[in-house]
Amino acid sequence: MNKAELGLIGDAELVEELSMLTTQAARMRARMADIMAELERRRCARPTQSHARR
């Protein structure tokens, strides 16, 4: 949606769009946190190089 299109939309619709985007952003942040936590869990679960060579 470009600036010209935004000018044609009423306040209620803009607020609705903003609310939807805010919700999507929150979901993406939560998903990113889940992925980062899983990667950290996997990293910590791997044996270190010094232990693997023994």
- Percentage of helical residues? over 70%
Number of helices: 3
The main pleated sheet reads as: none
Count all strands and give the number: 0
- Please write the string of helix (H) and strand (E) elements: HHH
Beta-strand residue fraction: under 5%
Radius of gyration: 22 Å
Terminal CA distance: 59 Å
Q: On the 0-100 scale, what is the average pLDDT?
A: 90
Q: Name the poorly predicted regions.
A: none
The shape is rod-shaped
What does this structure look like?
83% of the residues lie in helices and 0% in strands. The chain is built from 3 helices and no strands. It has helices spanning 3-8, 11-45, 49-52.
Short recap of the structure:
The protein has 54 residues and is mainly alpha-helical. It has helices spanning 3-8, 11-45, 49-52. The protein has a domain at 10-42.
